Amino acid sequence: MLWVWRNKYYQFTYTIEDxxxxxxxxxxxxxxxxxxxxxxxxxxxxxxxGIGLAVIESIEKASDR
Length: 65
Known about the structure:
The chain is α+β, with helices and mostly antiparallel strands. The chain is built from 1 helix and 3 strands, in the order βββα. Strands 1-2-3 form a 3-stranded antiparallel β-sheet. The radius of gyration is 22 Å and the shape is elongated. Keywords: Membrane, Transmembrane, Transmembrane helix.
């Protein structure tokens, strides 16, 4: 693997069944992918929390009756 920070590109080498595939990704693209993944995970966490709180609230209302 070749890691070049200043030139802003990375080389990843994958070996699958004796076949080597080289792919390059620029630093800006890698950073954008990581930021998008972080934002998506934060949105999913907030959505799951909201759903969980709604379920708990409905259970509490049902037990009060």
